[in-house]
Structures are given as C-alpha cells and as structure tokens.
C-alpha cells in the first residue's frame, strides 16, 4: 500500500487522467473530489453489499465524504482508503496494479 499525505486543495494523480483532490478535512471526516473519466467509482460499503441498489457513479466528477478507515474504489482495480485525517490534511492508502503510475500533483510538471 502506498500512503500519500495531502493538504486541503491538493491532488494526486493516477495515469494522468484520474485524480483525487482533498476538498476538506477534519479529524472526523474528509470531503474528496474524484475525477475518473469512463471508470466507476464506488464506496467500499456498496461494493461489499451485493444486494445494494445504490447507483454507482460512472465518469466525470464525484464528491465523496469518508471517515478515517473507510474505503472507496475506482473500478476495476484501484482501492483507496482514508488512513488518517486531521484539521486541513489527510493520508490516503492506495492499492493499485503496478502498471498504474501514482503521482503527487507537484510532481506532474
């Protein structure tokens, strides 16, 4: 698992097209913007519940609220967990196939 710390407003990228941006963070929860064109983004508890009828967002931007320890997926194979949060910053644990490049925004230039 790769762990990346982000402050509010900062992003990390996966394969140039997908990005996750931390919008707001407190100790209790974080608000995240996920941009994953043509991929499905799913909250972890929805993926675990096969009987769920909750719609899954596909393509474009999605705003999620997560608590530390909660997961979301960018399907088919990227798992992201909020590992820690505090006032203004959060840590994300990312599990992805080796061929997917993961970069902090400041390294994209």
Give the overall silhouette: globular
Count the DSSP helices: 1
What is the radius of gyration computed over CA atoms, rounded to a whole number of angstroms? 13 Å
Number of strands: 11
Beta-strand fraction estimate = over 45%
Mean pLDDT: 86
Major sheet strand order: 1-10-9-8-5-6
Summarize the topology:
Layout: E1 2-7, E2 11-14, E3 18-25, E4 30-35, E5 40-43, H1 44-48, E6 57-58, E7 61-66, E8 71-75, E9 78-86, E10 89-95, E11 102-104
Antiparallel strand pairs: 1-10, 2-3, 2-11, 3-4, 4-7, 5-6, 5-8, 8-9, 9-10
Which terms summarize this structure?
109 residues; mainly beta; six-stranded antiparallel sheet; five-stranded antiparallel sheet; 5% helix; 55% strand; globular
């Amino acid at each position: 698992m790769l762990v990346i710390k982000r402050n509010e407003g900062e992003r990390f990228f996966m394969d140039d097209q997908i990005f996750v941006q931390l919008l707001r963070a407190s100790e209790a929860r974080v608000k995240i913007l996920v941009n994953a064109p043509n991929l499905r983004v799913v909250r972890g508890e929805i993926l675990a519940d096969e009987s769920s009828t909750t719609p899954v967002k596909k393509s474009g931007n999605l705003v999620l609220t997560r608590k530390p320890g909660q997961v979301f997926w960018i399907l088919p194979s990227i798992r992201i967990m909020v590992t820690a949060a505090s006032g203004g910053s959060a840590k994300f644990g990312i599990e992805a196939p080796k061929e997917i490049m993961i970069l902090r925004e400041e390294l994209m230039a």
